[in-house]
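Researcher: I'm preparing a figure for a lab meeting and need a structural model of a single chain. I don't have an experimental structure, so a prediction will have to do for now. The sequence is pasted below. Please return the structure as tokens so I can convert it later.
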Amino acid sequence: MIVDADREDEATAALWESGTCGVEVRPAAAGRVELLAYFELDPDPPALERALPGALVAPVPVPEVDWLARFRGGFRPFRVGGFLVAPRWEAPAPRHQLLVVDPGRAFGTGTHETTKLCLEVLEELASRRPLGRTLDLGAGTALLAVAAERLGAAPVVASDIDPEATAASRHHAALNDARLQVVRADGGRPFRAGSFDLVLANLMALLLIDRAQEIRALVAPGGALVVSGLLLDDVPPVRDAYAACGTPRERTLGEWAALVFDAPHAFPSADAGPPR
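Model: Understood. Here is the structure written out token by token.
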């Protein structure tokens, strides 16, 4: 559709009323604009012409695009600290800090700021002490669990409630030749209190707050807890939910943050219950 530029809002409204799924606006010649509208069902061009007198309305075929292939074609290896994150079709010869990802799958590729923050925190923790028994809670692709295993953590558990996520975790464990225990579980409830020297919880802020007591109970004396997935505005309420863990070290990248708690003693939990 082509209309005068000052009728762009009117034309956009008419297209939405006609059932468009989305509108793209491009400049056209002589003070006009071109609106490309996408429809699941065939629209009614004559009805649009009646609604917008003077508009030029014509159907345009939508080319078949392999969006997955296009995305993969644009995904290149990149570094996060000492790690090299590479797609499986471009992964170089295995090295100690290579993380192989399959970007065609869900649950993350390592490009998100929260994942990058957690990878940097893992390197920082590993430089200070052995990571020991590690739990990646809400693991998704288990990229963080693989990174922990690369840095010497053992045993490493990748846990998620979503069966597609646990399938992705197993897939990435195999791609990276990483020794992971992949578990389908609801949060921290299935695990024994104090079982882990390091707990990684890269989750939504509301879930971190709701499950704070059960998550902090998982950390053994002398261990560490990393909570991530936080927008900067989420930091105060999440920090308050974990106040019993002490004062965290805060790491930020763009609009996102991660909190790192050290546990010289076991983190208290009002409802941890007996070990399971």
